[in-house]
């Protein structure tokens, strides 16, 4: 993770997020996205780091990344991640409240 963050530092948080060895490139429109993709691929080649194209996905309008769903409308919580919270019965005792808060991540 640290290596990829150091290598990709010029582009981090401008139009790219790195998590371990996953790279997410985001853009406002298709033209800008094409420019960002080219810039990253050329940059990685210069740094002698290469993308394994069999593991790459390009031009995806909706992506799941680190428990979130990202699309043209913005960033949303992955619905699968909140199912157990939605299905949890209303707590009726202090113990059940603590259990629910533990589940909810407080």
From TrEMBL:
Lineage: superkingdom: Eukaryota
Keywords for the protein's UniProt record, in alphabetical order: Nucleotidyltransferase, RNA-directed DNA polymerase, Transferase
Keyword ATP-binding: no
SUPFAM superfamilies: DNA/RNA polymerases
InterPro entries in alphabetical order: DNA/RNA_pol_sf, Rev_trsase/Diguanyl_cyclase, RT_dom, Viral_Replic_Matur_Polypro
Record's keyword annotation contains Nucleotidyltransferase: yes
Sample GO molecular function, one term: RNA-directed DNA polymerase activity
Domain Reverse transcriptase: 3-70
PANTHER family xrefs: POL PROTEIN, RIBONUCLEASE H
Protein name: Putative reverse transcriptase domain-containing protein
Source organism of the structure: Tanacetum cinerariifolium (Dalmatian daisy)
